[in-house]
Structure formats: C-alpha cells, structure tokens
Amino acid sequence: MYTQSGELVIISGVRKYFKRSEFKSLRFRIIFLVILAGIIPGVILKAVVLKSYENRAVDVRTADIQNQCTILCNQLSHSGYLAGTASEMIRAELVQLSNIYNGRVMLIDQNYQVIEDTYDMDLGKTIVSGDVIRCFQGKGTSRYDRENRYIEVTAPILNPVQEEPAGVMLVSISTDIIEDSLAVLEDKADTVLILMGIMVLILACVSGLVMVKPFKRITSSIAAVTEGYDDNYLHENAYTETVLLSDAFNKMLERMKALDDSRNEFVSNVSHELKTPLTSMKVLSDSLLTQPDAPAELYKEFMGDLSEEIERENKIINDLLSLVKMDKTANTPNVAMENMNELVEKILKRLRPIASMQNIEVVFESFRPVNAEVDEVKISLAITNLVENAIKYNKEGGWVHVSLNADHKYCYIEVADSGMGIPEESVEHIFERFYRVDKSHSREIGGTGLGLAIARGAVVMHRGAIKVYSQLGEGTTFTIRIPLTYVR
Questions:
Q1: Same fold flag, 22-225 and 332-483
Q2: How many angstroms separate the CA atoms of 252 and 233, rounded?
Q3: What is the structure's pLDDT at 375?
Q4: Above 80 in pLDDT, residue 170?
Q5: For the chain, what is the radius of gyration of the CA atoms?
Q6: What are phi and psi of 154, to 5 degrees?
Q7: Which compartments is it annotated to reside in (predicted)?
Q8: Distance between CA atoms of 312 and 277, rounded to whole angstroms?
Q9: CA pair distance 359, 299, nearest whole angstrom
Q10: pLDDT tens, 177-198?
Q11: C-alpha span between 338 and 485 (Å, rounded)
Q12: Which own/partner pairs from 420-429 qualify as long-range (CB within 8 Å, at least 24 positions apart)?
C-alpha cells in the first residue's frame, strides 16, 4: 500500500513538474527540438559508423583467413598430408597461421575425426557440425560470432585425383583486435558527441533566445494596450508568422479603437438625448413656478409640452431597453416556426392607420407561403422599425412596398419607400446608435435614432443580414435575409 501511494506521489510530482509554465514556453520547446535535432543524428551516426567499421573489419579479416586457407588447402591436397604423409613444413605453416591470427587450426578427415589441432586439445575426437558437413559438400563457410568474439572459417581439402573433398580445414580466430579498435573508435565518437552536444546546447539556447525575441516584443506591445491606445502600431517582420500576427493585432487594435470611440460617442449621445427632454421639462416647470398667477390656458399649454417631453423620454428609454434586452438574449432567442406571411400582415395592419394619416399607401406582396424559424418578438421589432421609418420619412401621398420571398435556404423581406432617401456619405452610418441623417426632421417626428440599430441587432441575432439601397430624393430600400432554419 505504501509503495503504490509512493508511486502515485512520484508520478503526480513529475506531471506537475512538466506542467509548469516554463516547460510550455516556445523558447523551451525550441531549445528542446534543436537539442534533439543535433543529438539524435549524432547518436545514429555513431551507431552506423561503428557498425559499418565492425562489418568491414570482419569482412576483411574473414577474406584474409579464407585466402590463407585456400593456399594451405592446396598444399595439403598435393602433399598427401591427410593420407598420413608427414610434412614438418606444412605443420609449421599451420602453427604460423594460428599464431599470426591468434587462432586455432584443425584438420578433419572424411570420418569427421580431428587429425591435426594446433592447440593439441581435440586430436582424435569427432566433430560433426553444420559448417563441416556443408564444407564436405564442397562449400566453404564463414561465420562471425559477435557474442563470443571469434570468426570461424571452413575450407575443403580436395582429393587431387577425384577432385572431391577429402578433408576440411577449420580455422577459428579471435576478433579481440577488432573489438579493441571498436572500443577506441567508440571512445573517440563519445568525445565528439560530448563536444557536439555542448555546441548544440549553446546553439539551442542562443536560438531559443533569438527566435523568441520578436514574440516578446509583440507581447510587450499587446500588454501596452492595457495602459491606453496610441498611434504606434505593431510592425514585427522577423518571420512570416510575426508579420501575420502583427497584421491581426493591428486590425484588432483598430477595431478596439473604433469600438472605444463608438462607446464614447454612444454614451455622449445617450446623455444628450436624455438630457434634452429633461432640460425642456425643467425650463417649462421653472416658467410655471415664476408665474404663480398664470392663466389656466398657459398651465394647460405647458402641461401639454411637458407630456410630450415625457413621452419622448419614454421612447428613448424603451428603445434603450430594447437594445439591452437584444444584447442579453442574443445567444438564447426564443425561436419557433412561424408563418412569415401572417406575421408581416399583422405588422402592416397595425401600421396602416399611421400611414393613412399621411396619405401613404402601404402595399404587401407575397410571392409564396414562407415558414421560418424565428423569434417572433425580435423579428417583428425589426420589420416594424423599417416600415415605421419608411412611413415617417416619406413624402405626402407616397408609398411603401413590402415584399416577402424565399428560396430553399433563406427568407427575404424587402421594405421600399418613395421617401427622401439617404445621402451616400450617411449610408454606412445609419445602423449606428443615435445616428440621424436629418437631425432637425428626426426631432420633429419624434425619432430616437435607435430604430435601425434595433432592427440590425434583431437580424444579426437570427444569423441574417440587412442591406440598404438608397438614392437621395428618390427613396430607400431595405433588404433582410434570414435563414429559414435557425443555426444554433
């Protein structure tokens, strides 16, 4: 139980150690990758070189032994040594071969008996092995035993009359000299690897520091944003990635500045819009207070003006509440399948009395039955604001044309009017909060400058788009496109 808990503690400690922030840094990973890229090839190269040297040395050693065996086998074949003819010279050559290569030489006759052994250990014994048998079949063999550090070579001794193997020469030589050379070479390779590792470590640390510097500068610039905006944009061109990151940061900074300016302007506009009716009400009430004996008609007139200002204040507050509510519920709209034809008909039914007061004709054209997943309250608010504006900013005896259409994917609602139109320079600003094209005319008809902002917010909440086409003096057309199926 103790051992298991101890292992868990160690494993947990190791995980926490490697989860530390410094091990997640780009600099550490660059250093780590450079070290791996420098050390691993060196280790592989060392192994390949040592293995290649060993194989080459064994091949050369084996070839030398095989040549010597071929020469001695020819001499043994013609001297009749296997038949019992003694030859001190050949014996001396066998011993010399054994001494030169630090090995052992044995001669085996057709009965697999050892008739000559330079170690004098196995004379008269029988040797039956796969190499000896293959050699009697006329195939010389060679084998390298790395574990026991020796090379074994067999060569056939041919009968000079029948040209068939009459015996086998078995030579075993030590590979200590190869192993010693390998040890020396490995020591040198280790020294080179250590030196190379030190150089790679230095290079990795320098590379890590140098390569991360542009990102540190970017981090500093981003951190400076918390202290306020300035005109010094980020221009870090060290790498392609930093160029892309700089461009993205600059765009974000511009957007943040625009949002900040928009927020300040919004607060200023809200303050102004709310303050204006309050100022008017204060002036009216002060006027009444300074005239204690004012006639009832004057009181009635001033109270009417106060009621209008209160109503204007109420409109502004309601529109602001609609915007706030739109922002809060943007991610969780109350979506349901609605009959868009009936929905638009109901909206126009409520607004036609207002249009008739200005002798404006409201026409609805539906190209086909349309059903869509929408938030009825929000989309109704958007359509209502567009049609109300088309009526308010129209000319006497004008018209408002509302059309409904759909394809396999989207629902299209178009609101066109014959009104005053929008100047080209104002088109891109009309969806901003409190923006008015004609401020004096807007005040006359009681506009708050929030209707189009509310409409756009409702359309965007439905993952849709709203566009405007207008020509000054000839009218304006708003087009809404929303998906038939709400995309969550």
A1: no
A2: 11
A3: 86
A4: yes
A5: 50
A6: -120, 145
A7: Membrane
A8: 7
A9: 34
A10: 888 898 999 999 889 889 988 9
A11: 11
A12: 420/393, 420/394, 420/395, 420/472, 420/473, 421/470, 421/471, 421/472, 421/473, 421/474, 421/475, 421/476, 422/468, 422/470, 422/472, 422/476, 423/472, 424/472, 427/468, 427/470
Residue spans of the domains in the chain: they are 22-225, 279-325, 332-483
User: Residue 260 corresponds to which amino acid?
Assistant: D
- Exposure of 3 in the CB half-sphere (CA atoms within 13 A): 0
Please report, for residues 55, 57, 179, 194, the alpha-carbon distance to residue 187 in angstroms, rounded to integers and kept in the order given. Answer: 18, 18, 12, 11
Cβ count near 389 (within 10 Å): 22
CATH number of 22-225: 3.30.450.20
332-483 fold: Heat Shock Protein 90 (3.30.565)
Helix (H) or strand (E) holding 106: strand 103-109
Average pLDDT in the 470-486 region? 90
Return d(Cα 389, Cα 400) in angstroms, integer. 10
pLDDT band, residue 56 (cuts 50/70/90): very high
pTM over 0.70: no
Burial 167-199 (b: 16+ CB within 10 A, else e): bbbbbbbebeebeeebeeeeeebeeebeebeee
Residue 48, both tokens: 């390949």
Question: Tokens representing 6?
Answer: 């101890």
Beta carbons of 157 and 76 less than 8 angstroms apart: yes
Residue 302: alpha-carbon gap to chain centroid: 67
CA 90/CA 103 separation, integer angstroms: 17
Average the pLDDT over each of 110-114, 337-341, 359-363 and give the range with the smallest value. 110-114
Q: What are phi and psi of 163, to 5 degrees?
A: 55, 35
